[in-house]
Specification:
21% of the residues lie in helices and 20% in strands. It is α+β, with helices and mostly antiparallel strands. Strands 1, 2, 3, 4, 5 and 6 form a 6-stranded mixed beta sheet that branches.
């Protein structure tokens, strides 16, 4: 009996679902997310990760100081950063900074309510797709010395499939 009731419920749900979606789309105002989810410009690190279930991912939000390097407006997720001497800000990391690499940018400022925001989301540990991580000037690949330093701070760069994220 339970199986028959389950089948009837499933049939009703399958018949009504397209109608509900159609009615919702007709009444949906323009420019609004369909499911009211977080916008696509909000923090989304998954494309950088080497797999989607890294248990050791540690992310902090730190002020960004250009310190003679790339401006904040040119920083993108996947760029490498280092700490300043006081460890109060992150600075762009270039090839010459292999010995002091500290993290990977995962999120840039996009708070429309606070246009003066200069903080970036930085991963201090985790596994990332080697194809998506670059120095702050956009150059890649990361040198052997840079990869060694990143491993020392618990950041691992995995060779991933070019067509998509690696899933072990």
């Amino acid at each position: 009996m339970k199986t028959m009731i389950s089948r009837i419920k499933w049939a009703i749900a399958c018949a009504v679902a397209p109608l509900i979606v159609a009615l919702y789309r007709l009444g949906k105002p323009r420019g609004v997310e369909v499911y009211g989810a977080i916008s696509g410009t909000t923090f989304l690190p998954v494309p950088l990760l080497s797999h989607d279930d890294d248990p050791n991912l540690k992310i902090v939000r730190m002020p960004y100081a250009a310190a003679g390097g790339a401006a904040l407006s040119t920083i993108k997720p996947g760029y490498l950063v280092k700490f300043d001497a006081a460890r109060a800000n992150v600075n762009p990391a270039l090839t010459a900074d292999d010995a002091v690499l500290e993290g990977v940018v995962l999120d840039t400022p996009n708070d429309v309510a606070n246009p003066g925001d200069t903080t970036v989301g930085v991963a201090l540990s985790g596994s990332f797709d080697k194809n998506t991580i670059k120095y702050s000037d956009g150059s890649s690949p990361i040198s052997a010395a840079g990869q060694k330093r990143l491993r020392e701070v618990q950041i691992y760069l995995d060779t991933a499939v070019v067509g998509g994220a690696f899933a072990p």
